[in-house]
Design a protein that fits this description.
The protein has three helices and seven strands, in the order E-H-H-E-E-E-E-E-E-H. With 156 residues, the protein is an alpha+beta fold. The chain has a seven-stranded antiparallel beta sheet with strand order 1-7-6-5-4-3-2, covered by helices on one side. Strand 3 and strand 4 form a beta hairpin.
């Protein structure tokens, strides 16, 4: 079993509270995901819902070749407004652990993501990772970076 890790940091010109409100809402995941994936939150999308430990969020998406897939994550840790962790309970990975951290700066907030994950299927999974999974995850992160820069432009 091979463990993979992705780290990403982005500065946004918003307050810690604004960052928390945006990123802790599952309703905003669809905004940050490339449209070709047809990513939809399928669990209850109550407006203003406060994130809590044990919260289950379900999704439908088409990540590869338009093939539909279901994904379920659980919010396992919440330390308002500094970080939260989601872990896959059902989905495309053997293991998925995503920590979202928010650190105030002099002119906004630093948003840091660290994802540890395992691809299933042994050798075939390793081959898939090398051929397209790694590139697809990098593309999704870059897409998210662009969307966030458009939603929260710097006042330069």
């Amino acid at each position: 079993m091979k463990f993979y890790n992705i780290k990403n940091t982005q500065h946004l010109p918003i307050s810690l509270e604004e960052a928390w409100a945006f990123f802790s809402s599952p309703n905003n995941l669809e905004l940050m995901t490339p449209s070709y994936m047809d990513f939809r939150v399928t669990s209850n999308k109550a407006a203003g819902e406060i994130m809590f430990e044990g919260q289950i969020i379900t999704y439908a998406l088409k990540p590869v070749l338009g093939i539909p897939m279901k994904w379920m994550t659980e919010i396992t840790h919440v330390k308002y407004p500094h970080y939260f962790i989601d872990e896959q309970r059902f989905g495309p990975y053997s293991m998925w652990h995503h920590k979202h951290t928010f650190t105030p700066t002099d002119n906004g907030v630093e948003v840091h993501d660290e994802i540890d994950y395992v691809i299933p299927l042994g050798f075939l999974g390793t081959l898939a990772y090398k051929l397209f999974v790694k590139k697809k995850l990098e593309f999704i992160i870059e897409h998210r970076r662009k969307v966030l820069n458009e939603l929260f432009p710097s006042s330069k």
